[in-house]
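Q: Joint fold for the lines below.
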Amino acid sequence: MMSATFFILAAVTLIGACAAMMLRGLVHCALALAVAFAGLGTLYLNLGAQFLGLAQLLVYVGAIAVLIVFVILLTRGGDSDSPALSPTALPIAGVLVATAIFAILAWAVFHSVAIHSPGLPAPQATIRQLGTTLMADYVLPLEVIGLMLTAALIGAAIVAMKEKQDPQ
Amino acid sequence: MLGINFDQVFVLLKHWLLGYSPAAIQPAVSILLTIVPILLVFPVLFALTTVLERKGLGRIQNRYGPNRVGFYGILQPMADALKSLTKEDIVPASADHTVHFLAPLVLLAVAFLPYAVLPIGRNMIAANLDAGVLFFFAIGAISELSVFMAGWSSRNKYSLLGAMRAVAQMISYEVPLLLSSVAVIMAAGSLSTVEIVEKQAGFSGIFPHWYVLTPWGFAGFILFMIAATAETNRSPFDLPEGESEIIAGYYIEYSGFKFALFFLGEYLGMFAISGLGITLFLGGWSAPLPFLTWIPSWIWFFAKLLGLIIGFIWVRGTLPRLRMDQLMNFAWKFMLPMALVVVVSAGAWRFLPQGLTRWLVSTAFIAVAYLLLARGVETRNKIAKRTYRFAE
Amino acid sequence: MLGVGIVKGLAETARNFLGSFVDKDRLVTVQFPEERLPVAEAARNFPFLIYDGVDPEQGLRCVACQICEKECPPRCITIEKSKDKKPDFVGKQQFYPAVFDIDVSVCMSCQICVEVCPFDAIRMDNEFELSTDDRFGGLLWTKEKLARPNEHYMAIHPTEATEVEARRAEEKAQAEAKKQQPAVTK
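A: Joint structure:
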């Protein structure tokens, strides 16, 4: 796992995430975030999770990143560029909080079961298995999610329609 | 025939060349030998398609196409390449230079990736992924981001408007595209392109097992090709880039070679998605009739690809451009329900026993849905016959 | 039904495409430098001077009356009368132009010079492939370049030319008759 490809992909993801924080233009940040998402997707692919990696690319980069840029453009966030990090105490506090979270997560990961168990073969989660599991064991959550998405779609359509009728 | 297996000639050539390289760099050489033909063949096909398109459109419009440069104009792409290379590269002063520069590169990178999962011949695929079709769609979704980058970075209202419209169009037409391929995936039982083609490679009597020859496959193929035309911003769905609509849409501010790169990216996307359509519906590299299997598989793939390209050119020469609202209505109110019905029909086909019943049931689902939905798409107010009043 | 119109449209374009290989009506392009469309008889571009016979100096019809120079709206004609005279087609001694220049970059092809010429000496030519890379000298046409034989006029504007020929033959006959007469009455 700690191969050259992992380092390269991790570097791309981290650079994308840092750029998303630090760049000045808001749309630049959104595009850097898309790079971070793509890096994450390729990390999943590197681990052998084909469906998850490709779904990450399809959904996050293909849809959610586009959604983010649309939102930036349709509201007025795109015009005002955020100023560069000002030399106040905020960045230092941010770094401290981030280090604390990283330390806690690292401690949790290193003390978890997965690292200490002897090399169990990773389960071959083929898409067929994913599909049958979803339809057989988890069919109720699937249907609930479907209903929720439909409700969200209808809600969005209603909210958009109501805005058009307001000027009357 | 001649003792050389023409079908596998490229595979054998690759193995022969690999044998000559030292064992240490063999993986790298293998990758190179797989990728370089793709990088060479499809841009050459792009060059041929530009000539074919201009001459084809010309003949449809009662004129010759370009016929001065080479033998019947075949060297026209050379002239076009020289022209685009020697044009001045103008970048607007207020444009965002980094993103402006990166947009055609991202588009091109994303345009070449899907060819990795297209089986061009028997045993001729660059990456035999288990989730090949999903890979294709994931990469296709990324290309929308590059369109947006191109439009936004030019700092031009019309460019941004064209980019927003293009992205909206691409997102809307992804849904019928994916749903019609879901029907094929259901019938084949796998997401791997190689398996989908192998499922269609058999014959029953004289008819191949291609999915396009089933009722749901036929409807699915038509939906897939319409969605493909819209995905690649091709006429009649080229509102975001129409010259008479919004000048050139999201690539207004690009000149010279970057414009040529956009063009290349668009056509490569067209070939890739036609390739996927061939793989899913037209049986990939398999021959249409049992006595024609002696023709190599890659020739069949390219023949079908050429047929689809001719179809694209034909449709471009025939149909007028769709307006944005007509386009979106068509996607959400006609194609999406139709694609869902195709999925249901494919399911019915899969679970009914072989025979006349499943043909009738499948066709009934599709025909009824088509007739009901078509009435929703047609314009409601009848356009009255125009009357004139002249001065006496 | 939805889709029928599209299919009919596709059939029409297919017919156009296939027909363009066999039917001349479906391929109306004229490949310009090799083929040309026939020019209409009354087409006009820039003027030219007519000469009768074979010698452009002797047969030039222009008598340097300078009416066209005065009437030309953009004043593109420059004429210098000669010092001596030469006989015209009826035998009368007339001046001739020593210098007759038309600046074609200024000429607007209005044909006024043709309308006012009393001697049928200047007419409109119909050549349009006149590009040159010499912007100033190449577009200042001198008498040598402007002089064309009457056969050329007959070829490009036949009806006008025959009418002019008839009129000039009549005038010549009248002049001959007048020349004969004094010998009779005296």
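Q: Anything notable?
A: Chain A has a mean pLDDT of 83. The two ends of chain A are 62 Å apart (CA to CA).
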